[in-house]
Amino acid sequence: MELFFQQVVDGLTTGSVYAALAIALVLVHRGTGVVNFGQGEMATLSTYFAWQLTLWSLPVWVAVGAAMAVAFLGGCLVFAALVRPVAGRPLLTVVTVTLGIALACNSLALWIWGALPQSFPSLFPDAVWGIAGVRLTATAVGNLGVLLCLAALLYALFGRTRVGLGLRGAAANAESASLVGLHVRRMHMLGWGLAAAIGALAGALVAPKLFLTPDMMLAILLYGLAAAVLGGFDSPAGAIAGGLLIGVVENLAGTYVDPLGSELKIVVALAVIFVFLLVRPQGLFGRRGVLRV
Amino acid sequence: MAEGSVSHRAFGTLGVVGCVGVLGALPFILSPFRTFQLTLAVAYAVACLGLNLLIGYSGQVSLAQGAFFGLGAYSASILVDRGDVPVLATLPAAAAICFATGFLFGIPALRLGVLQLALVTFGLSVVLPRVLLKLEWLTGGSKGILVDTLRPPGWLPLADDRYRYLLCLLAAGLAFFVGWRLMRGRVGRSLLAVHDHQIAAQALGVDVTLTKSLAFAYGSALAGVGGVLFTWTTGFVATESFPALLSISILAGAVVGGITTVAGAAFGGLFIQFVPGWASGVSPALSGLIYGGALALFLIFLPGGVAGLLARCGRLLIRVVPAPDDAGGARTSLGTQGVRTVATNQKEGL
To answer: Which of residues 104-123 of A touch B (CB under 8 A)?
Structure first.
C-alpha cells in the first residue's frame, strides 16, 4: 500500500511539470488557435540558458528568473518573426512552422552546448520527510507549490488585470476585439511570450531529475500534449488536472503493469491521446466544438 | 501551347521519358559510393512522396513518417532475418504492415481535424523508437539487425550497387504509379470533394473518415516502402537510424522539395540525404538547424518549394494556356511531372 502512495506522490511531482507545460500549450492554443509543437524545445533552450547562468555563478532562482524573462522575449520574437507571417494560412502550415521551430531550437541547443548530459542544480533543498511510510521530498512539495503559485498568478492576471482582459478578449473574438480598439496582434504576441516563459519554468523544474540534454523535453512535450488533450485544449484548469492525472497514472502503470516497465511508461501518454480523441475529444473540461452548417 | 493539346502532351511525355532516362543512366556514370547515396535518397524520396500525397490530397500532416520508415525497415529486416522470407517479398509485406498500422492509428484522429492527427502521429514518432528498443528479443535492441544487402540474380550482368539503385528506382516508380492511379480514381475524387467542401461531400454520401484514413494509410505505407529500400541498401537497421526527429526531417525535405508534386519528393529525398553530410562537416547540429530553418522559411517565403520555384521559372519560358473550350471552374490537371491538387486558381503549395 505504501508503494501505491509513494507512486502517487512521485506521480504528482512529475505531473506538476507536465501540467506547467500543458498550461503553456493551452495558453497558446486558446490565444492563437495553434498547438505549438516547438514549446518543448523552446523550453529546452531556455533551460540551457539558465544553466549557463548558474555556471557563471548566479544563484539558481535568479538564473531561472532571468531565463524566464529572456524566454518571454524570445517567445514574442518567434511569434512576430515566424508565426505571424503565416497567420492567414491553413492550420497545417502554422503547425509545420512550429515543427521547424522545434527542430531549430533543438539543434541550436545541441550546437551551442553539445549533447553531453549536464547536471542542473535543483531549485529546492535536499530535505526529505517521511509521512506514513511515504518519502516526501522537498522537490515534490516544491513542484506542486510552484504549480499552484503559477495557477494563482495566471488566475490573477487573466481575471484581475487589464492586460489579462485584453488577452481574453483577443482570444475570444479577435475581430470584435480589434474593432473595440484592442491591439490583437500584440495580445497574441504576449500570449506566446507568456507561454514561453512558463515553458522555461517547466524545463527548470524537470532538468535536475532528467539531466539536461537537447532531447530532454521531447518526451515531456508528449506528456504535456496528452495532459492538454485529457483536460481539454481550451481549459487551463483542465491542463493542471490533466497533467497531475497523467503523472500519477503513468507512474502507477509503470509500477503495476509489468510489460511496460519504466522505459515504456510513455506509452500511457500515447494511449491517453488515442483513447480521448476516440471517446471524448473535448477532454474532461473542454467545450465541445459545434459547427454550424 | 494549349493545355491538353497534342504538343503539350508530347512535351510532357518527352519530359517524363527524358527524366527517367537520365535517372536510369546515373549509376553507370557515377561512382559506387555516389550511387549508394543516391539509392538512399530514393528511399527518403518515397517517404517524402507519401507525405506529399497525404498533404496535397487530404490536407493532413503526418508527423510519423519517420516512425513508419523505421517500422518498414524493421519489418523487412525481421522477416528476412527471422522468417526467412525472400527479400523482394518483404516490400509488399512491410507496406501492408505499415498500411494497417497507419489505418489503425488514423481512426480516432481523422474524424476530427488536422491538429488531432498531428498529435497522434507525434506521439507515435516519440513512442515507437522506445518500443523498438525495448522489444530486444525481436529487434535486436540497440545492436540492431544485420541482413544481407540485395544482390542481383546470377543471370543479370549488373554490379551490386547499380542493381540496387535501379530496383529502388523501379519500386519508387511503382509506388508513385499506384498512388497516381488511386488518386485518379474514386478515392482521389472523394478526397478532392472533401478538400473542396467537406460538408457537401458528406451530404453527397462520401465517407469522409474512410477516405481520409485510406489516404493516411497509403502515405504511411509509402514511408514503410522507403524504409524497406533503406534496409535493402544498407543491410543494417538499428534504433539510432530512426530517431524521433527523423519524421520532422522528412517533413522538412518534403516542404523544401515542394509539397504537391512528385518532383518535389525527389528534391526532398536529395535534401535529406545530402544536407546532413555537408552540414556535419561543419557541425553535427548544423543539419538540424538547416532543416528547421528551411522548414520555417520555405513555408513563409517559398511554399511551393524548389519544385514550385522551378515550375515558375519554366512557366516563364513556356506558356501553357487553357484549352479554348475550357468552361473554367475547379478541375484537376496533370502536370508534366506531377499531380497537382485542386486547380481552383488559388494558392500553390500549402
So the answer is: 104-108, 110-111
